[in-house]
Amino acid sequence: MLASASVSYSPCGPSALTVQPMAVLRPRPVFFHASDTEIYAQGEKSGSLYRIEYGAVRIYRLLTDGRRQVVAFHMQGETFGFEAYGFRSFYAEAIVPTGLTPVEAEGSEPHRSDLMALALRSMIRAQEHLLVVGRQSALEKLAVFLLDLDHQQGDDGIIDLPMTRTDIGDYLGMTIETVSRSMSKLREKGIVRLKNTRCIEILRRDKLQAISE
């Protein structure tokens, strides 16, 4: 669906949805995806890349036993959809109301160089995800996850959590109960504060970093 306005999801702000004229952001059309709707499916022929103008996207694969493995979360301003072959290796879904701009892989040399840098960054993040999942402690996994999200969102200590606890568990290789218990431990230790179910404030970054190391 072609969007005529940008809807910015921000659970940490005074309102979850802030409408802005699309022309203020960029002249290209923005396509709207409602919460939990599919952007592309595993096995489809690969095509355009996508830049997130607002919202958030989960990338995942369905395992043979029916379980879901989330491999990445992408936020506003990020580009996703890189593929090594001619088909989609994963599913992509909008987590919240999301606006996407298609980005063509072909173009001028500066454009291709920019895309190469984005692809390399995506590969590095995938490698870092493997390191997080391989950690022994659930608290360590969650600490690294929160610090990474904070870095994605500007390192200001206020973290928007558009994803659910189930999403986080499927990303970190934990049950939803373990995610909730670990979050409660961080809160009880005075390391984080839950402003609401989708917004976290880091109170003691030093302690959170110590847990993650």
From TrEMBL:
Q: Which GO terms describe its molecular function?
A: DNA binding; DNA-binding transcription factor activity
The segment(s) forming the HTH crp-type domain are 136-206
Which Gene3D superfamilies did the record assign?
Jelly Rolls, Winged helix-like DNA-binding domain superfamily/Winged helix DNA-binding domain
Q: Is the keyword Secreted in the record?
A: no
Any idea which UniProt keywords this protein has? DNA-binding, Transcription, Transcription regulation
Its cellular-component GO annotations read: cytosol
| Origin: domain of life | Bacteria
Look up the signal peptide feature and give its range.
none
Looking up SMART domains in the UniProt record yields: cNMP (SM00100), HTH_CRP (SM00419)
Record's CDD domains?
CAP_ED (cd00038), HTH_CRP (cd00092)
Q: Give the transmembrane ranges.
A: none
**Domain Cyclic nucleotide-binding: where?**
32-81
Q: PANTHER family of this UniProt entry?
A: CRP FAMILY TRANSCRIPTIONAL REGULATORY PROTEIN (PTHR24567), FUMARATE AND NITRATE REDUCTION REGULATORY PROTEIN (PTHR24567:SF75)
This protein is called: CRP/FNR family transcriptional regulator, nitrogen fixation regulation protein
Q: Which organism is it from?
A: Agrobacterium fabrum
